[in-house]
Amino acid sequence: MFVFNAMQCSQAAPVITVGSHVWVEDPHLAWIDGQVTRIHGDNIHVKTNQGKTVVTNVYFPKDTEVPPGGVDDMTKLSYLHEPGVLQNLGTRYELNEIYTYTGNILIAVNPFQRLPHIYETDMMEQYKRVALGELSPHVFAIGDAAYRAMINEGKSNSILVSGESGAGKTETTKMLMRYLAFLGGRSGVEGRTVEQQVLESNPVLEAFGNAKTLRNNNSSRFGKFVEIQFDKNGRISGAAIRTYLLERSRVCQISDPERNYHCFYLLCAAPPEDIEKYQLKNPQSFHYLNQSNCYKLDGIDDASEYLETRKAMDVVGISNDEQEAIFRVVAAILHLGNINFGKGEAIDSSVVKDEESGRHLNLAAELLMCDAQSLEDALIRRVMVTPDEIITRTLNPDDAIASRDTLAKTIYSHLFDWIVNKINTSIGQDPRSKSIIGVLDIYGFESFKCNSFEQFCINFTNEKLQQHFNQHVFKMEQEEYTKEEIDWSYIEFIDNQDVLDLIEKKPGGIISLLDEACMFPKSKSQDFSQKLFQTFKNHKRFAKPKLSPTDFTISHYAGEVTYQSDHFIDKNRDYIVAEHQALFTASNCSFVAGLFHSLHEDSSRSSKFSSIGSRFKQQLHSLMESLNGTEPHYIRCIKPNNVLKPGVFENFNVIHQLRCGGVLEAIRISCAGYPTRLAFYNFLDRFGLLAPEVLEGNYDDKVACQMILDKKGLRDYQVGKTKIFLRAGQMAELDARRSEVLGNAARVIQRQFRTCIARKNFRSIRNAAIVLQSFLRGEIAREVHKKLRIEAAALRFQKNFRRYIDRKSFVTTKSSTIVLQTGLRAMIARSEFRLRRQTNAAIVLQAHWRGRQAYSYYTRLQKAAIVTQCAWRCRLARRELRMLKMAARETGALKDAKDKLEKRVEELTWRLQLEKRLRTDLEETKGQEVAKLQETLHTMRLQLKESNEKVVKEQDAARIAIEEASSVNKEPVVVEDTEKIDSLSNEVDRLKGLLSSETQKADEAKQAYCSTLVQNEELSKKLEEAGRKIDQLQDSVQRFQEKVFNLESENKVLRQQTLTISPTTRALALRPKTIIIQRTPEKDAFSNGETTQLQEPETEDRPQKSLNQKQQFSILQENQELLLKSISEDIGFSEGKPVAACLIYKCLIHWRSFEVERTSIFNRIIETIASAVEMQENSDVLCYWLSNSATLLMLLQRTLKASATGSITTPRRRGMPTSLFGRVSQSFRGSPQSAGFPFMNGRVIGGGLDELRQIEAKYPALLFKQQLTAFLEKIYGMIRDKMKKEISPLLASCIQALRTKTPRSGLVKGRSQNNFVAQQVLIAHWQSIVTCLNGHLRTMRANYVPSLLISKVFGQIFSFINVQLFNSLLLRRECCSFSNGEYVKTGLAELEKWCHDATEEFVGSAWDELKHIRQAVGFLVIHQKPKKSLKEISTELCPVLSIQQLYRISTMYWDDKYGTQSVSQEVLASMRHMTSDVTKNTISSSFLLDDDSSIPFSLDEISKSMQNVEVAEVDPPPLIRQNSNFMFLLERSN
After folding, report:
1. 493: Cβ contacts below 8 Å, ≥ 6 apart
2. Kind and range of the H or E element at 560?
């Protein structure tokens, strides 16, 4: 394994003790960490984390305090060495952090997956105008640094993007171009801008210059330097593309599984008509393509790519004819490759081998538009011109094939050059440009198993760039030392100038010797190799392999590379064969002739020898001159694995690229000086425990650091202005002493802990003994107690048993006595009972006998009385029978009346249903039917009254007859005719039954009549209720119809407004104000249909006959001028009402300006408001006009309604409808008062103003309303943007707390007061925001701005604060710390207190707008994050945050206060998986928030939220009050 010995040797031996953590070499992982278990001389015994023990003398100390997510700038690493760099890159790559700084060098690791969220426009906005290193590493930060340096210093800059094939150089370059176009692009320019053409030239260049290699499916086989030119304003004004060293040999030779250039395969997949035109087949049929078995790329459709390339060629300015010529040449090259040669008849001659080769020869000649025989002669014959004669010789088959390949390579090379020149011509360059930004996309260092001339040139380029890179790094080191004002001497670093001299020195360099060999036609590779071996046999950078006679080895900065020189001479030759040039110069294709014509001019202009190597050296020299004239910025692209899959990080592969990219060389240069640089705060935080007495004193940080270093006896360190600079090895020494102090402290802690454990065990044993003793004593006591209980129980048992025996004897005796007594007493009682029963029986017999006698007498007497009564009653019954028959006849009449009444009710019910269906004649029928019912009811009541009177009379007569009958002699009469009496009695009973039945029927008829009346009343009520509902529905329908009509009219007005431009409107305003007014007959002002012209008909009353129209118009103009003059000044408020808005409204109402077709007053009012608020910075003025605009709009919204026509016309009176619905709707339309609308009679009654009324507004009034709405939104936006502008600078200080104290501030007793003052300074930024909010709130409340607008303003301001703080939190890792979360949380508490004090009326839901930053800060400050599950985090702690945002915060979090960890690895893996799924399934997956700059309210919302304004009660200003023409404003107010 190759060890970075230069780095190791440049550092002092680190101080290692037993227990130290170190990095040691590993054959599988390159470097592995472990812990030192034993030190034996120079060797150490290390137990790795994998459990094995390693003995080695090559090791590096490991920093155990590096953050879990790595550092974004590797200069912050405590140990800047190879394993530390590798671990940091690998850690960040696992977290999808693909960018890392090394100073101002950006390292970009290819993720091999889409990460669109870090390249969107909102991300560009975040990096705009931000200093390098302030946000997370990004390619946009490098682009912004280059652009800002160019703008501020006026010097050109360059960005060098390098890396091996597949590292992502091309994509990185595209991102840089996009960002530079974002910074310097022109918006709103017609056609294609320069930046767009540069970006869209990439597909063309990739089609003709990229190919599949072993390491990359889209490898650039040329170098590209894009010069973007800027004007003095920083806008892109031009561009140019320079290309270097196209790999020409790939046209003829490819190895499996690589591919040729993409354009060949695209053309073979072209549409059928193009295939037929160029006589093409599949790629397997062409020699230049079938040398490899790879013809297609995974996920790439060559057919669609061909069409996309044609579109891109259209974009960059290549015409269709030129495109046809280009692809004709490409097809000709494919056919050339299929021309084979065989031996001819003559010696060393050749001919076209077969018919197939001849066919391809003819096709190639046809496509190139040249003669086929001439093409054949140019391939197999050469003409030699001597002083004596011209000799023509024939080439052998091998030379003919070489001639064919040379021709193909030459054609393709110059075709590529032509495309690049065409693109440059199309883009255009700016000769007046003063500065440029160059983006260099160059191939990286290459070392393969077989390295040819192309790898030699590529590595030569990288040697040149590495020298430039080393000088830049060395320069940056010196600038760092100078800025920190430390004493430093010249730092020695290994320069690769000797390698460059070996390659390019003239004479004597490898390129010079190669050119010299190419001048001789018969030179061979062996001769060239021998020349190299002889010339450089003693050169330390040159070596000769033992096994190959033609190979040679060069020791580059990245390692040794062995080159095979077999084809060096052929690939280096760059001359044009005269036969080829003559052939194509005579081509009928102007495109081909133009290519070779330019070559002819170049060759005639210079007769010197030309080669690829010398020309490339000149191009490289020109490139270095361009780079030396610019300020360089470096981006090193790294390919993490060779399988091109995401998530795979191969350590050996990355280390190799770090060496090839010069990153480790830059680290070595840093190690040669002061590799460890710590800020004073970080140094005290880490090593303050080495000298606690220094921390206890009130020393300055710089002095404290120096005292610690002096105490530990370190020398040769430097103390800068803000940092401590340590030599290599000193950091390890300090860490060793720190580990020793920590070890001693740990031992003290262990001793105390073990003492505590022993004491705890002793106390446990003692407590156990006490418990055991207590238990035994308790057992003994329980035994004694048990015996005592047994004795007491025996005594109690004996006592109870004896008591039981005695009680049983007593109970037996007592029972016997009671039985004996009971028998005796029962015998005596039975004797007494028999005597008493006999006595009672005698008494009963006597009573029954006496009763029988009395009953017999009573019966006889009763029968006699009954006979007498029956005779009299029979007489009365006959009389009553006659009366009942008369009553029966009257009951029949009542029944008939009842039947009629039922029929009438049925008829009424039927008519009611009919009225509900038809709804036309209901009201008239209702009146008629009710009248009939009332009449019938009256008649029935009269009949009932008469019947009652008759019944009363009969009752009186019967009562009199009974009284007369009672006076008859009551003496008993013996009646003999009992049968007649019985029959009469039965007849009387029958008549009584008939009378009762008739009476019952009469009662039932009466009840039915009453129920019918009740039903009739209910139906009447339902009818009235239905009528009311119909009225309400008609009212609602009419209101909705009018609202829809108003909206349609307003939309029509808006469509007319969009078709009318401002000059036309002004021209119409200047025309004579004439209108055709058709007065109504009621007003009698004009005859029906008569037309009259009026000048400015804005007043309601017609001018008096004594004044002419001109005088009236001049008076109106004076009134308008006075009104505009008054409102142009701040006339304040009257009892919270804006005077200007009310004044404008009352004047416009009085002048009837809303009802005219043309007027200029609206435009003049708008111009007055515009002049007052234009470019206004005073918040008080803006709030004043915001209040007036809102009030005036509210009045207009409640007053104006759209008119159906453009002029005032009287609607045709409709006929009076007969139905209820029609009459209700007619009354609704004709009487607004009845519909519940406040309405004025159109006049100024007594000079005052009534309530608001609905006015049919014309087009100017509706246009005025729309313009006023636009000004309201503009003023609102100005106030909002002004608040944002004031708050934005404060937010930068509110997102990150300054370093005021160390985590061990308890030791720093002398600094407590300073910390308190610092905390007050920190919270002052938040208090400044609160002060700003209070100021604006006071201003808006003082100007009586509606509370809705105030709440909307603060809602958007808090949303802006949320966006800025949250985005800064996601982009700056130093902000995602525990202490910073506490700081931001304290500031948010200040804002919450302000929201509470300001009340919800003016703040609304502004506090809810901070939900993202509140939840993010809450996540930062919670403890025990590793114990939280993903569900708890996403649903309970941070439900608003997306999974991408949670993943970003979790990976960037670091605890600078307690040293706790972020979420667990399982949660982090789940987040990473979900983030990848979201990224794949969505187009845009940005984790940043967007600021909302929309208008968050509507006109209806303003109108509903504001209270009614009594405009009549507002006093006019003195200027208006003194004018007699405005007396109508005073009468109501007085």
Report:
1. 470, 474, 668, 669, 672
2. strand 559-564
Peptide bond into 257 cis (omega under 30): yes
Residue 75 in contact with residue 69, Cβ under 8 Å? no
Residue type for position 624: M
Q: What is the DSSP string of 428-443?
A: ---TT--EEEEEEE--
Active site includes 220? yes
User: Among all chains, which residue has been given the structure tokens 């060999």?
Assistant: 517
From 100, 165, 403, 1126, the catalytic residue: 165
Whether the pLDDT of residue 1 is over 60: the answer is no
Catalytic, out of 97, 446, 480, 504? 446
1506: its two tokens: 């504001």
Written as six digits, the tokens of 1114 are 């001049």
Residue 299 has pLDDT above 90, yes or no: no
Please indicate whether residue 219 is annotated as part of the active site: yes
Which class for 98: exposed (0-12), middle (13-18), buried (19 or more C-beta within 10 A)? Answer: buried
Query: Residues 219, 462, 1191, 1199: which is the catalytic one?
Result: 219
User: How far is C-alpha 260 from the chain's CA centre?
Assistant: 44
- Out of 100, 102, 158, 170, the active site residue is 170
Compute the distance between CA of residue 1309 and CA of residue 1301 in angstroms, rounded to an integer. Answer: 11
Element (H, E) at 1066: helix 1062-1070
CB-count exposure of residue 844 (10 Å: 0-12, 13-18, 19+):
exposed
Closest CA to 281 of 328, 326, 334: 334
User: What's the CA gap between 150 and 158, in Å, rounded?
Assistant: 10
Nearest of 1329, 1341, 1335, 1398 to residue 1183 by alpha carbon: 1341
**Angstrom distance (rounded) from CA 362 to CA 374:** 11
Catalytic residue among 103, 168, 444, 688: 444
Pair 147, 158: CB distance under 8 Å: no
**1484 in active site:** no
* Residue among 158, 173, 193, 220 flagged as catalytic: 220
Whether residue 509 lies in the annotated active site = no
170 is catalytic: yes
Confidence of residue 755 (pLDDT cuts 50, 70, 90): very high
> Which position among 70, 84, 166, 509 bears the catalytic label?
166
Task: Please list the residues that pair with 351 across neighbouring strands.
Answer: 342
Per residue in 559-574, pLDDT (tens digit) is 899 999 888 888 887 6
Distance, in Å, from the CA atom of 687 to the CA atom of 676, rounded to the nearest integer, reads: 14
The two tokens of residue 1347 are 């509370």
User: Does 480 participate in catalysis according to the annotation?
Assistant: no
Region 274-279: mean pLDDT is 91
pLDDT of residue 1049: 58
From residue 395, alpha-carbon distances to 569, 577, 1448 in Å are: 19, 13, 68
B/e letters for 1249-1277, b = 16+ CB within 10 Å, e = fewer, are: bbebbbbbbbbbbbbbbebbbebbebbbe
Identify which has the larger pLDDT, 75 or 639. 639
> How many whole angstroms separate alpha carbon 1310 and alpha carbon 699?
9
User: Which one-letter amino acid corresponds to residue 843?
Assistant: I
